[in-house]
Design goal:
With 217 residues, the chain is α/β, with parallel strands linked by helices. It contains seven helices and eight strands. An eight-stranded parallel barrel has the order 1-2-3-4-5-6-7-8.
């Protein structure tokens, strides 16, 4: 089971304090996604993460910071992936293997999942449920992972403690959360409250029988 936290796309007061607290709790993978961030802003954010946790961070942009801070990996957007030439993609995978970093991907249509190379560490499929962070961004209750894929697919979009158990029957290998943590934090929930919520999500996630993809062949 993979559980991932994606950053708030916009700045929140004392955001980094919650990030570090969740790392202290048990957060194994944090995606830093700030679409409007410059390289300088991204680096400033990274400098505020406790050094022991930097190896758990995946970048969505400014990949040149990866090696400088010894981060976990990089994440590609769907349109960027589809536009990449074969030789460029192979170069990314080759570099990732040498540096022992992950390369992950976002997708939005089940029909496109067969396009996902097995070299990807995992792929987000969204939106599974109605988005918590994006008003009017409706989920697709019929989204299921087709059998036989040579890729691990994680559910994204509207994931909460209450609907988590619906994912295993849909063939997902895990999940990513965003709004279920950041929306209540923005509305005033305390760090302690959200660390406890995250703990409950982790515990419930570990009790679920997730899809295990054989990536060896």
């Amino acid at each position: 089971m993979k559980s991932i936290l994606i950053s708030s796309p916009t700045d929140l007061s004392a955001e980094i304090e919650l990030v570090n607290a969740l790392f202290e709790e048990s957060l194994a993978c944090f995606h830093l996604r700030k679409p409007d961030y410059s390289r300088i802003q991204t680096e400033h954010f990274l400098k505020q993460i406790k050094p022991a946790f930097l190896k758990r961070v995946v970048l969505h942009q400014h990949y040149e910071l990866l090696e400088k801070y010894n981060l976990k990996g990089i994440h590609l957007k769907e349109d960027a992936y589809k536009a990449m030439k074969e030789e460029d993609l192979l170069a990314v995978f080759s570099t990732a293997q040498k540096r022992r970093i992950t390369v992950s991907l976002s997708m939005h249509q089940v029909e496109d999942l067969p396009l996902v190379r097995k070299e990807f560490a995992y792929t987000f499929l969204s939106p599974v449920f109605d988005s918590i962070s994006k008003s009017g961004y409706r989920g697709n209750a019929t989204l299921c992972v087709p059998p036989g894929l040579k890729a691990e697919v994680l559910a994204l979009g509207g994931i909460t403690l209450e609907n988590l158990d619906q994912l295993s029957e849909k063939g997902f290998a895990g999940f990513a959360i965003l709004g279920t943590i950041w929306k209540p934090y923005h509305e005033g929930s305390s760090i302690e409250t959200l660390v406890e919520l995250f703990r409950k999500i982790e515990e419930k996630g570990k009790a679920i029988a997730w899809n295990k993809t054989d990536l060896s062949s």
